[in-house]
Amino acid sequence: MLLLSNVFLSGSGLRSSSLDDPLVIAGQGTAGSEILKQAPHSNQIDVIFVGGGGLVAGVDEYIGSPHTKVIGVETLDGDAMARSIASGVRVTLPEVGPFSDGTAVKIVGTETFRICKQLLDEIVLVDNDEICASIKDIFEGSSFSQKQRTRWIFLR
Q1: Residues 8, 14, 16, CA angle at the centre, nearest 5°?
Q2: CATH 3.30.230.10 applies to domain 18-127
Q3: CB of 80 closer than 8 Å to CB of 93
Q4: What are the structural domain ranges in the chain?
Q5: Collapsed DSSP state (helix, strand, coil) of residue 64
Q6: Can you give the pTM of this predicted structure?
Q7: In this predicted model, which residue has the larger pLDDT, 14 or 69?
Q8: Can you say whether the dihedral through the CA atoms of 56, 46, 48, 95 is positive or negative?
Q9: Which has the least CB within 10 A, 33, 43, 45, 69?
Q10: Which residues contact 15 (CB under 8 A, 6 or more apart)?
Q11: In a 3-state reduction of DSSP, which class is residue 121?
Q12: What is residue 143's predicted lDDT score, i.e. its pLDDT?
């Protein structure tokens, strides 16, 4: 959907970045509403992959409070936000690892960096083995039938 909106906007002379548009960030923040509905008394949200920062910035703006910690997660070979926050300026990575390609960005957005620098409580760095173990834990703890699991594995 974001790709289509960017194509439409570019054709109209307008420009929007899915990483840096305040309205897109606000829209991604609605995921925070869903998190609060499912875990209304949680004092820590710690499963948000960072990538370019749009989702975690939006959720942090929606949820962020002194009573709720929002913790981002980045891969060891795709830690642009962690490095940027540590240095106080946006850092461009020379390359990013291909395993977690949906969160692989060389540089985070200007607006997302500003928000995360101000609101994000912490960033945890994980390696590929930890990602695989988490996927396995979720998959094995799910209510998929054996037939669905076999089909899912086959389709992967």
Answers
A1: 80
A2: no
A3: yes
A4: 18-127
A5: coil
A6: 0.75
A7: 69
A8: positive
A9: 43
A10: 9
A11: coil
A12: 58
